[in-house]
Amino acid sequence: MTATDPPWDPYARECPSRDLLNRIGDKWTVLVLGELADQRPHRFASIRDRIEGISEKMLTQTLRHLEEDGLISRQVYPEVPPRVEYQLTSLGVTLRGPLAVLREWSVSHATDVLAAREEYARTGLRRCPS
Fold first, then answer.
1. pTM for this predicted structure
2. Cα angle vertex 104, ends 102, 105, to 5°?
3. 82 — phi, psi (to 5°)?
4. Three-state secondary structure along the chain?
5. Is 33 inside any structural domain?
6. Which domain holds residue 77?
7. What CATH number is associated with residue 36?
8. 58-75 pLDDT, tens digit each
9. For residue 123, what pLDDT is reported?
């Protein structure tokens, strides 16, 4: 950040950084960016097949938003049928580290979170911090 950068504050309602944080934190965005993290070109069908549960409509919307935000590039090849490939841009590559940490945390702590959910469902009470 430089002295000329605007003072972004994601806690402020109308701040563009909040919109960006919401976009990046979306479950489909995280999974699509994770799938593209290897920096190889990926075709639509391979992304769709890898991310279980995503509809074609939601994948299309997510890819368009990521392209709009400059996080991925879309390359169309003039073939019949057209071949389209998606890849992280240099800006998108900067998210690989933070998203890898989130992915690793979710895998490492899934058991703890599931146990906490079971405890909450069993007792119906919120636990006080120790």
1. 0.84
2. 65
3. -60, 140
4. CCCCCCCCCCCCCCCHHHHHHHHHHCHHHHHHHHHHHHCCCEEHHHHHHHCCCCCHHHHHHHHHHHHHCCCEEEEEECCCCCEEEEEECHHHHCCHHHHHHHHHHHHHHHHHHHHHHHHHHHHCCCCCCC
5. yes
6. 16-123
7. 1.10.10.10
8. 999 999 999 999 999 999
9. 85
